[in-house]
Amino acid sequence: MDKHNSVGLAKTLSYFYRFTWRHNKKYPLYIVLSIALKAIQPFPNILIPKSIIDELLGGKSMEKLVMYTALLIGINLVISSLLSVCNHLLQFINMRTNKLLDFVIIGKAMEMDYEHVENAEILNLSKKATSSMKWGTWGMYGVTSKTVEIIAGIITLAGLGYVFSSVEWWITALILLFVIANMYYGAKLSDANHGFWERMSGYHRRFEYFRNILKDFRFGKDIRLYDAGGLILSRQRESIQYGRKMAGEWSSMNVKYNLFFNFLNVMQQMLLYGYFAAKVFVGTITVGSFTMYIAAASALKDSIQNVFGETMGLREQAKYLAEFVRFAELPDVKPRGHGALPAERDFVIEFRNVSFKYPGSEQMILKDFSMTIPFGQKLSVVGMNGAGKTTFIKLLTRLYDPTEGEILLNGVDIRTIDLAEYAKLFSVVFQDFAVFAFSMKENIQMTMGDEADKLREVVDKAGLTEVVGELEKGADTAVYKYFDEDGVEFSGGETQKIALARSLYKDAPVVVLDEPTAALDPIAEYEIYNRFNEIISGKTAVYISHRLSSCRFCDVIAVFHEGRLIQYGSHDELIRQPDGKYAEMFNAQAQYYVDEAMSV
C-alpha cells in the first residue's frame, strides 16, 4: 500500500458530511439554525450594555433601563435556549453517526481482501481509523461543532466590521496582527499534535497487545508454566516508558505554546484598554461606547481566533479522519467477480501454471504449479512445513489470487466468479481455526440458518453428542467465560470437533481440512481423519498434513516440496518410488504406520 496515498481535506469532510446527512435528513437544518444563533449571539452583549451605561450616566430613565435590561436578558435567554436544543439534537445525531461509523470499520475489516488482514501496515491503518473517531474533538461531533463555529464566526466578523467602521484603521490592524501571530503558532501546534498522534498509533497497538495477553485467560497457563509474566511485563513497561516519554514531550510543547499565546493576549488587552480609555478622557466617545468598543474588540479578536483556530482544528481533525476514509475506501486488490457459478454442479478445479508470492515478498511460495481436482476426489496434500500446502489452500479458496497462472472451475477462471458465491463451495477447517466466545450452537451454525435437526446430526457426526449431553445448557452453552460466567473452556480435541461440526453444518460440496489436528499425535489424527472421511461421502475432500495419516483413504496424494508439486499418485504408486519424497517421509514416520508398511 502506498504510504503517501493521502486523502485531502475536502474529500475527508465531504465523506463525513454526506454520511451524516444520508443517515439523518434533518442534519443540515440543525446546522443552519446553530450557525444563525451562534452568529448573532455576541451582538446583544456588545450593543445593549452601551445603552444601559449611557442611560445610567445620562438620562437615568428607569423605564428605559428596565426595557434595555429586560431586552438583554430576554434575547440572551432565547438564543441560549435555542442553541442548547440545537446542540442537544446535533450531539445525538453525532453520537449515532459515530456508532454507525464504527460499523463501517467493522464491516470493512470483515470484507476487505484477506491479504490486507496479514499486512502490518493495514493493521496500523485500521488502528488509526478506529482511534481517529476518539482523538482530537471526538469524531463527527468535532467536525460538526467546528463547521458551525467557522461559518458563524465569519458572519459575526462581518457584523463586527460594521461596528468598527468608525474606528481608526490601525486599531483593527493591531488586533489582526496579534491574531495572525496566534494563528501562525497555532498552526505549528496543530501540525506538532498530529505528528505526535502518528507516533503514538504504533505505541497504542503494542501496548494493547501486551495488555490483552495479560487479561486473556487462554494465555494464563503458558504464562504461569513458563514464567512468561516477567517477559511480558518488561515489554509492557518498555511500551509504557515510551508512552510517558512521548506524553512528556507533548505536554512540554503545549505548555510553551500556551504561555506564548497568553503573553500575546495580555499585551493586546493592555493596548486596547489604553487607547479607548484615552478616547473617553478627551471626550471623543462616551463611557457606554467605551464598553461597546472594548466588548467588540474582544469579540473581534475572539471571532478571528475562533475562525482560524477552528479552521486549524478542523484541518487537524481531518488529518485524523482521513485515516478513517483511507481505511473505509481501501481498494480491493483482487477483482471481486460478478459471474455466476457454472451450471454444472460436478465441480472440477484446475490449477494451471500457478505461481504465487505474498505481497511485499520476492520469494515464490508456489512455482509453476499445475493440478486438477475432479469432483468427488479425496486428495491428500502432504509435505514438510513450509512446503506451500497452506498457501495452496488460500489460493484454492481465493483468499489470494495467483501471481501468475490461473485457477479454473469447470473451465471458468475463478476470478470472474462472484467471490461470495465462490466461497459457498468450501467448508474449511484451518490449522489455526477460530472458536468464538458465542454459544456452541452459534459456533457451529454461524450465520448459516437455525435447523435443529441438522444441528443434532452434525453434533453427532462430529462426536460431540456426549459432550453436549453433559452440559446443563446443552448446545446453548457459552464457549469461554468472556460474557457468561457459566461458559466452558473446551479441551483442544473438543474445540477441533466444534470446528469440524461447523464445516459439516455448512454442507458445502468441497471440504478442506488444513492440519486442524496438528496438535494431536498421529494416531489420534488418523482416527479423526478416518471418521471425517466416512461422513463426507459424495463430496470433494482435500486433506492437508505434513504427516501421512490422511493418505490411506485418499484417492490421490500430492507431494509438495519447496513450492513445487514433485509427486502425484496413489499411496501404492508413490510408496514404490524408493527415491521419492513420499517414501522418505513415510519411512521416517514408519513407527506409526507399521500395518500399512507391511501391506505394501
Automatic annotation (TrEMBL):
Hydrolase among keywords: no
Pfam families in UniProt: ABC_tran (PF00005)
Subcellular localization(s) per the UniProt record: Cell membrane
GO cellular component: plasma membrane
Gene Ontology molecular function: any one: ATP hydrolysis activity
Domain ABC transporter stretches: 349-587
Record keywords, A-Z: ATP-binding, Membrane, Nucleotide-binding, Transmembrane, Transmembrane helix
Domain of life where this protein originates: Bacteria
Residue span(s) of domain ABC transmembrane type-1: 29-316
Membrane-topology annotation of the record: Multi-pass membrane protein
PANTHER family: ATP-BINDING CASSETTE SUB-FAMILY B MEMBER 10, MITOCHONDRIAL, ATP-DEPENDENT PERMEASE MDL1, MITOCHONDRIAL
Protein name: ABC transporter ATP-binding protein
Organism (species): Paenibacillus montanisoli
